[in-house]
Specification:
With about 375 residues, the protein is an alpha+beta fold. The chain has 11 helices and 19 strands. The protein folds into 3 domains: about 100 residues, Rossmann fold (3-Layer(aba) Sandwich); about 60 residues, Dna Ligase, domain 1 (2-Layer Sandwich); about 170 residues, 2-Layer Sandwich (D-amino Acid Aminotransferase, Chain A, domain 1). The strands form 3 sheets. Strands 11, 12, 13, 14, 15, 16, 17, 18 and 19 form a 9-stranded antiparallel β-sheet that branches. It is globular and about 60 Å long.
Length: about 375
């Protein structure tokens, strides 16, 4: 469990000094560290890989497996609170850390977010509408279920993101080995939704149960990966009543999961104007990167505030913003952005620009 420190000798942590622990070393962790630094806090990153964007700017980093209980215990002793930068950290790791320090988002939220069927069941249990869905555990389940769907999406319940771990099905392309092709026996079949747009909603909830939300974002995807988010959502796409429903839903979910931290909910806006639950992420979310410049308190600063025990900041938005994801194949677009005066460029410090890899994002004021 090597620890990399800057300086080389690990400094003694003064009790009054807040050191925020970050589970995960990706770009969300990096931007959390940047926000923490602006508020006067240092960060200690715990990640299995030493080649991670967040470790480059962290005060301390521990490279160890998330199942390494000894490393987790040592990590907990060096920090005053822990936040997650992605949701696929083992719940057991969160439980171990929670014995020592406050944690965000908490084990319940983390566990539910890791399983698509559990997410849908949770949403329905508190009265939030979802697309029709059914658990699939074998080919017979799938064949029978498809008799009730004209078109559907078959997904792995665990892992899978940015369009991975899923298959679009109709009666015409359903094959005898469709289930086997997924490589898992824990699947969910969801009815294909006829929607006009996807909206996302973000809530922050502190350890006292106080909550605040940001204006909703409207999202566009390309190749299964978020490409553009615009916020605040235009009223002709997300009517005010729909936005109120979405905000009520994300707050209800935060309460149900006893969240401490930030949580995003993605929802479909159907052609009939209904909001349908898609999925949750109990961490900072790509569709709210615009808050770095566009809101009084960004999603990252708010997470740090919660971890540090500070009051929640204002989430008021300034004007309208467009966030554009820059993937490995989009690097020429990043270079061109330097000539656009209203664009704020956020690079993630990744050395290799691979196709589909998130390298940076652009925030641009559009109104």
């Amino acid at each position: 469990m090597p620890i990399d420190a800057r300086p080389e000798t690990v400094p003694e942590i003064v009790p009054e000094t807040k050191m925020i622990g970050v589970l995960g070393g990706g770009q969300l962790g990096r931007m959390t560290i940047e926000a923490a630094s602006a508020l006067g806090y240092r960060c200690h990153v715990f990640a299995p890989s030493g080649d991670a964007p967040a470790t480059d700017i962290a005060s301390l980093s521990t490279r160890a497996d998330y199942h390494d209980t000894e490393a987790l215990a040592g990590f907990a002793k060096s920090v005053s609170a822990v936040v997650c930068e992605f949701e696929n950290v083992p719940v057991t790791a969160m439980d171990i850390l929670a014995e020592h320090v406050p944690v965000c988002p908490g084990s319940k939220a983390l566990g539910i977010a890791q399983h698509r069927l559990s997410e849908k069941n949770m949403a329905q249990s508190i009265g939030i509408a979802t697309p029709r869905y059914i658990a699939i555990n074998n080919q017979a389940d799938l064949t029978h279920a498809m008799t009730d769907f004209d078109a559907a999406i078959l997904k792995t319940c665990r892992m899978g993101y940015d369009g991975k771990g899923q298959m679009r099905l109709t009666a015409d392309n359903l094959a005898d080995d469709s289930f086997a092709q997924m490589g898992s026996d824990d699947l969910i079949l969801e009815e294909l939704v006829d929607f006009t747009a996807e909206a996302s909603f973000l809530v922050a909830r502190d350890q006292h149960g106080q909550m605040t939300t940001w204006p909703a974002s409207i999202n566009q995807h390309r190749g299964g990966i978020l490409h553009i988010s615009e916020a605040p959502a235009p009223a002709d796409i997300l009517p005010p009543e729909c936005e109120r429903q979405g905000i009520a839903a994300v707050k209800a979910i935060a309460e149900e999961l006893d969240l401490t931290g930030v949580l995003a909910v993605e929802m479909f806006i159907t052609t009939s104007g209904q909001l349908l639950f898609n999925e949750i992420a109990p961490r900072p979310h790509n569709s709210f990167h615009w808050t770095i410049e566009g809101a009084e308190t960004s999603q990252f600063s708010q997470l740090v505030r919660i971890a540090a025990g500070l009051p929640l900041g204002s989430t008021a938005a300034y004007n309208r913003w467009r966030m554009t994801n820059i993937l490995g194949q989009d690097m020429p677009e990043l270079d061109a952005a330097f000539a656009r005066p209203r664009v704020h460029i956020h690079r993630y410090g990744k050395a290799e620009a691979r196709t589909g890899r998130k390298m940076a994002h652009l925030n641009e004021q559009i109104d």
